[in-house]
Amino acid sequence: MTHIGLDHRLTYYRKGGISTYITRLTHALSGLDQQNRYTVLYSRKERDFHAPSNMNAVPLWTPCHHRFEREMLSVELARLRLDVLHSTDFIPPYRGARRHVASIHDLTFMHYPQHLTAESRRYYNDQIEYAVRHADHILTISESSKRDLISMLNVPEDKITVHLLAADPGFRIPTPENIDQWRNQFSIPQDYWLFLGTFEPRKNISGLLDAYRLLRDQISDAPPLLLVGTRGWLYEETLAKIDTLHLNQHVRLIENTPSEALPVIYNQAIAVVTPSFYEGFGLPALEGMACGTVPIVSNRSSLPEVVGDVGLQVEPENPGQIAAAMLKAYQDTAWRKEQIEAGLKRAATFIWEEVARISMKVYEAVA
Predict the structure, then answer these.
(1) Per-residue pLDDT tens listing for the chain (367 residues)
(2) Is 131 helix (H, G, I), strand (E, B) or coil?
């Protein structure tokens, strides 16, 4: 029996993205692996934390992304005698287990350092080279991220394993009752284009707003654009751009939406538009397909891996191309229906049990 530690601390500090990955992986492992022993490591601040019933849970004092995180975490983990520590948010401690597995989801901060604050740039640049060198094995979430690790950080190919992510089981076609409930609660319009994610520059919301401005110049009564998500680095730029383009009456921001409402918000959209400059995976495109929504994504990084032949791929630096894709999804209802069916089939091929199965093989191999 291998004693495996899963670092769950980030789920207290952030929602969505990597936190979703950590939570779903943990639950998939709990249902799949009955041979090994698991200890879930969570923030002591999360007082209502509950690990799966067949896993142990240990609170930790060390906060995420602290400059002394590696030292502090090493001290805290020494007493647990872990065989393998899975650092799910990429930064393994100096010590903490006999072997270390690190999840490195993407290298956004290296591709687009201008989209980070100066403090964040210093933090990530200091950590990443140590992380890839110290980890016994690296898990990443797309072939695109694997290529980046090899080309940008000289990581040997055989040190990297890809496990594509999956949508949460809750992302599916909603019932008519759910649609009515959340439409009324959020006053969701009849038609709209949707962006879902963190409001930060690398998501290219600025380019999406330029595209939407072009679209409204063509169709004066075009449906609104909904930006659903949470505020990230430099989000003020998004607010300023909306004002500059005179879109205040046509762009609506919905923040901190309950997860239960998201399937309806996806399902009722004309399309979910993800024009990011870079994504390690791009869950909104997959979640949207699972909920019966057409994806429009940039042709960069991992997004083509996620959508395959479904929906439309656009050049993120070309607002006219983004606008044309949004217009096609709006006007070509027969095409949109075909893409919805294709998206549902594709989304069903991404499952968390497979993510967990691949992770288990890595744990056992390094142990």
Answers:
(1) 999 999 999 999 887 778 989 999 999 999 999 999 999 999 999 989 999 999 999 999 999 888 888 999 999 999 999 999 999 998 889 988 999 999 999 998 888 777 667 777 777 777 898 899 999 999 999 999 999 999 999 999 999 999 999 998 999 999 999 999 999 999 999 999 999 998 888 899 999 999 999 999 999 999 999 999 888 767 788 888 999 999 999 999 998 889 899 999 999 999 999 999 999 898 999 999 999 999 999 999 999 999 999 999 999 999 999 999 999 999 999 999 999 999 999 999 999 999 999 999 999 999 9
(2) helix
Whether 3-166+351-366 shares its CATH topology with 176-347 is answered: yes
Task: Evaluate whether the domain defined by 3-166+351-366 bears CATH number 3.40.50.10860.
Answer: no
Task: List 6's β-bridge partners, or say none.
Answer: 40, 86
Q: Render the burial of 22-59: b for 16+ CB within 10 Å, e for the rest.
A: bbbbbbbbbebbeebebbbbbbeeeeeeebeeebeebe
Domain ranges of the chain: 3-166+351-366, 176-347
Q: Is 294 exposed, middle or buried (0-12, 13-18, 19+ CB in 10 A)?
A: buried
Topology of domain 176-347 in CATH is: Rossmann fold (3.40.50)
H-assigned helices in 98-168: 108-111, 118-134, 143-153
pTM equals 0.88
Position of tokens 């609104």?
Answer: 224
